[in-house]
Amino acid sequence: MKRQRFLTILAIAGAACICLNACVDLDITPKNVVADEEVLSTEAGVNIYMARMYSLMPFEDFKYTAQWGFENNGWLNSTGIEGTGEAVNREGLSAAFTSERTAYWNKGFELIREANYLIENLPNYQENFGEELYSHYLGEAYYIRGMVFYTMAKRFGGIPLVTKVIPYPASTEEMEVPRSSEEETWDQILTDFDKAASLMMAKSPMEGYANKYVALAFKSEAMLYAGSVAKYNQEVSGRLTGLGRKTGVRVIGFDAATWKTASIRYFTESYKAAREVMQDGGYSLYKKRWAANDPEAQYQNMVDMFSDLSSPENIYVKQYIYPTTTHAFDAYNLPFTFRAPLSSGTCPTLDFIELFDGFDRYPDGSIRVTSGDQNTSGNYLMFDSPLDFFKDAEPRLRAYVIFPFDEFRNRQIEVRGGIYTGDTPIKPFFSNYGYNTADTRYQNLSIYNGSPKTLYLSPREGGSQEVVDYNGRQMRAAGEEGPFYDNGEATVTGLYLRKWLNTDPKAEGGEGKSAQPFVLMRYADVLLNAAESAVELELAGANSPDGSNLMQTATDAVNEIRERAGAVLLQGTLTSDINGRNVVRKERRKELAFEHKSKWDIRRWRVAHYEGRDGFWGETRDKNKFSNNENYRFRGLYPFFSTKTGKYFFDARFQWVASKTYGYTPLNYYFEIPGGEVAKSNVIDQQPNR
Amino acid sequence: MNVNFEKRKLLHGITILLVFLLLPGWLWAQSQVSGVVTNSAGQPLIGVSIRVKGSSPQLATSTGAEGQYSLQVPEGAVLRYTFVGYRMLEEEVNNRSRVDVQLEADDSTLDEVVVVGYGTQKKVTLTGAVSGVKGTEMRATKNENPQNMLAGRIAGVRVWQQSAEPGAYRANFDIRGMGAPLVIIDGVPRSIEDFQRLNPNDIEDISVLKDASASIYGVRSANGVMLVTTRKGREGAVSVGYNGSFTFQRPSNMPFLADAFEAMTLYNEKSMNNINGGNLIYTEADFEAFRDGSRRSSDWTSLIFSDVSPQTSHDLSISGGSAKTQYYIGAGYASQEGFFKTGDLNYNKVNLRSNITTEIIDGLKFDINLAGMADQQNNPYSSSVDIIRNYWRQGMLFPAYADPEETMLNYEGLDLEQNTVAMIDSDISGYRKYKKKTFQSSASLNYDFGTLSESLQGFTAKALISYDYRTDNNSIFRKEYAQYAFDPITDSYLQKNYELSSPNRLRREFYEKQQILSQITVNYDRLFAEKHQVGVVLGWETQKNDGDNFYALKNLAFPSDKLFLGMEDGRMTGMSDALSDYYQEAKQAALGRVNYDYKGRYIAEFQFRYDGSSRFIKGNQWGFFPSGSAAWRISEEPFFKAIEALNFVDQFKLRASYGILGNDLDVNNNWDFGWIGGYEYPATSDNAENGYYNHYVPGYVFGDQFITAVSRKATANPYITWFESKTFNVGVDMDAWNGKFGFTLDYFDRRRSGLFQRRTSTFPTVIGGIPPLENVDSDQHLGLELELRHRNQIGDFGYSIKTIATVTRNKYLTAVDKGPWKNSYDRWRNDNMNNRYQGIQFGYESDGRFMDWNDIRTYPIYTERDMLPGDYKYIDWNGDGEISGLDEHPFAFDQTPWVNFSANLQANYKNIDLSMLFQGSALGSMEYKEPLYSIWGTNGGGTLTQYLDRWHPVDPTADPYDPSIEWVQGYYAFTGRYPRTNSEFNRVSTNYLRLKSLELGYTLPTFDKHPNMRLRVFANTYNLFTITAVKFVDPEHPDDDLGRMYPLNKTYTMGVSMTF
Distance between CA atoms of B335 and A222, rounded to whole angstroms? Predict the structure, then answer.
């Protein structure tokens, strides 16, 4: 008995010991939390901090979709479909740039906080870094803050200028920041870029970082925007300006008394910044494969330049690395037969092609497809191959756009609208190609659905193709690459995009398989900034900021670009009038197409709304030919095969497959401030014109 | 078998004999008593425990195979016969040498013991709202998931099965609508997943703490506690049990696709639905092409879904024991196949359990519970949602195979070229395998100090240590495959790899989780002066949990599922830093309870837990959670007993409880250790395996290298701590007429405050940070619960009925993240969280349908010019003469129903037994979404058969806007015309009543040779029929996943259960 009792007590005591030993420490720090000391005190740590800032940067590249905004969502990404006229596609995403689903507001302030935090806290660790690197880091913070302010100002006008880390919790006065006037906003952007340029190293300490010239290049672009807005707001009926209801601050537009001097000030800064990059930056246009008078070489040169990371033209590039960080541009934009599983997201328009040299034209300047003096008269011009139509086209255009029957990834891109079996010569299919009849399409023609049937089209690919007997062989009505009238997954304009696509025939196209870099800023941009600000300064009667000949600078810049492009050079110097300005604008429209730049140009020139729309294309075109007083639309170019002759002819008409129109009103030149933000704050004003 | 059986009997006999022989010499035998124990039918009872009352040391035995026993007893001994399911019987020996007794079956619930936190209590003297269900009762519903077996069984426990997908265990489960409860299995906190994977046959009983009685579980108790007890062995002969069943499953309401002709007709109608002139997409030639076979369609439905899907389960249990040692050993196997034809969606599970109790020395008991579970969930590479989505979307206009011999998968005409037949086949497209293994153990020592001395009677101590371990081992294999299209021009087949299937890729994931828990409890339970029953529990508990994981991913050189075959390209390793996957946490608590019971009339109880959680910063870690409850058993009052007229009342009790409970789990699951600021490293984002191509990239490329970024944590809030839940409950229990009638009625009110939330509505955006989590929000749950019981026996026919109804309402009180509001209308319309009851949907009420053109012309409210007969009419709620957003008003409830009810009927006649469970809910609604709302697809896709029931012209090619044509009426409006999504036409009440389970059993008469052998055969159906207004899908099937979630099932089971 004694022994048992002893054993029992021992057992209980033992169990008690186990439990007491298991007394646990409740002070457990989560394993993945790190503090400032770890992040800001070493180069490797700052690199990680920079990676955070850059990961939040509002870069409009392969993962930006204009209609959605910065959602980090590459889904169906394409370029030039934002109502710029460069391209269209079947999707609802192809719409005028009147708003962004996710407004760039919260994410902007998140990044501004990171930049301000670095400016305020890095000094605590100054001794850990070399002087040059330390000041470069600070410069990055100013550059990033300037970029965010610029990104917001383009969209909203005046914005809250948060230039310090705001504490929380704190008094309302400390925590709330009202919108500044638009002029103050652009002045702050100017200050931040200047500060950044003064602090940063001439060469990036690491690829992917900015440097002095990156800051200056973006400064010149931002100041060109500011100068344009200050000036062209005045030309929009009712002047685009007003005071905030809560604060009385001029949150959009410029004061009547200051717009002119502000405009000149900004154009001057833009010119100065561009000139500094041109003179000291050491950049040049990419001409590695270029050869004079060799269109093939000039074309290939311009295809290569967008993927060559060693290009001397690159000022700032966003890189991707497969498979760690990728995009899906190929998946959404390859021609139809490469679809993976989507395709044809960017279909360039005929209107865009008309900007370029090398085509026969009607008296009104539009591309000639018939023997008459407009496309309703005469007979269709016949070509042995569709490519013959493009034989004199500018090499730059061929580098940007895949022509019907041209090669891409060793494959002939067979684009054919349909087959015509009627007699020749062939009269134009439609008697009216006007805006209001655009909805009458090939499938509504009696030659297609009546009897006798002489026109063959295909609703879809593969087994759904209509088939025509041609000299004993079966021929599909539509090309392998479309267009198909009931399937917008192939081209809808008769053209495909080439720019940015991976040209490697072995490359896979699926989502998450692309890693081409996106060139966010290149030397050609800077040349065009210099040219445009020069012309604007000259138009305003201002002096040259650095004593250089403004018009000569502009002329040289345009010619430098044209020479590389294989385009016709300017004869003589640009004139200091609207024509001279339009030459620069048109060059910009061509050179920078599909780079997320044109939609901003159209905005800052204030040419998207009806009254200004004559200037939409950079040159003067009669707006009533492509729009009514509300909406506008774009055209395609469709090759047809004639069985009687074995030749091809082209029909030029408003985009055939989907009926897509675009609208723009002066209201849209400033995006709405997110309603919730206005409601939440006592100081944030909505746009006064909304 | 027989021989073994005999042998075992023999062995058992020898064991018992040995025990007797070795009984210590101090056993001063006076006389030998023997006898037989039988039941009222005269059949012998095996394993009846017989003790000499008050003997010390204990004198005890149990009956053998023929019910016989024999025992040495002292003079004047009183024998106490106890056997589960029978009333205890005491019999004086009085110098007899043979004592034969008959035990009466115990059908009274009054002596029931209920498991509560850290102990058990008699049901009659409970002061809290505690309900339970016996394992046997629960098992009358046949389902793979014990959770679903609980549906309709326990008042206040709401189970809502969402899908029958094998191994997915998708079910909503809560107590009184309060949220996910804490699950305790055999005294140890475990997860709901552990409960779902229990072998149902191992469950002894389940009890649920619904009110402040849960407060003894402190910081995790706010949503109530479910206590599961597994079976234990009993003293007596070896009992072997076997249950086996085979089940056929059918989907419970699953929309299928219409055929090609119907699809083309609907598409034509949709295209004709244009007031400016529509056109026919499919001409007579297209119809003819399908008729003469020049175009092929496939019956996708039969290619993808099998007619019946099998399911089976088997389990074996062995239990028994001697006076000192009892054991229960259970083994179970279950497998279930999904509805897809290939059978590649399936699940299997093996359970093993061993619960052993032994008395090491007098008064010291050792318990060990060991349980292991291994399961495997096999899926095709595509999820069931994607498979159903794709099946619905593609339609039947294009064949599954490019060639008539059906050897080459087709891609032509399929949206995104995705062929559903490839998706359901693991051999073609790869798989996802999820393997889980759990090991759960607990060992405890329990010492009864009463064996030491009389003065220590009722004083016991227990020490328990538990160790649980779980691993998840997942393989996700994507296999590249080719698809084909026929090219009529070259008369050949084009081959193309399906883009999204490439490259071949294998991902392996490994997770491990473990928990160590130790408890010491001291119990004191004693009756003083025959009237003061005092019970005390004091305990100390510590717990540590940690979880770890990693994964590896490689693109494969060959389509073979081995990681070492990976290529250099596309290699990735990493881990999930989600709080549920990677954590280290600790808890520590002191707990206690005092009960006082005066003559079984006045009962009071006080409980507390002083609980510490590592989730919070030092200083905020510890919380005190007290509760008190009291009951008054009026039926025990002398005055009550004195009233003759009230004699029929067996018991009548009033009770009330109030307590403060806590929770350290964030309701919205965004717990981020808000007391600490700084950064998190590494920053993460979705879709890393595809290079984040459609997501935020948590880093940046510098110098040709990807640098992973930090992410900034929310502003720190050092004050964050658990939130509190104040729970009040008042109830009545009554039983009368010897169990013929009983009811329980409860009212409850729980108010939570200090719920975690961020003040996003007022946090200025310009700050650019994330507002901290604070203890700021609050809400309230209140409701009623009623349980009615009836039991009766008429001759050989016995039956019982139990009905349950629960109504729960949830009222939000404060939600600081909502707003700001532009005006009071905006607030009324959109603020669902501040001072408002849950579950109200805004929308339009029905005003019927336009029956003909005249109806449209004469309709007083403004209508669009393209109205058609059959179109939907809405009530102009604000009376402004037009239907607009301003007519939206509260008109329907949410998906989660407020009211749950059930009726459980059991009957037996001789050897036949019947069990029926009716179950339903009310005051809930669901919305038909995307594919269930409209024809969602292109190219003939999305045409579910239900859409054929529509208003349409008799002539399918007629212009619907021609007023002269004749119409056929239907459920839907003309194809292409849809009601407003948030209207009565599209959001329908999910009220339903269904026969959840029906079981008919027959017990074979016993063989004379083996009187203990019991063989029962049964047939069971699950979800046999449902009365509801929901069409096309099951009313419990939620509109999650836009209606594409895997359906519920109806099952038909045949089975056998056997014990000997």
Answer: 66
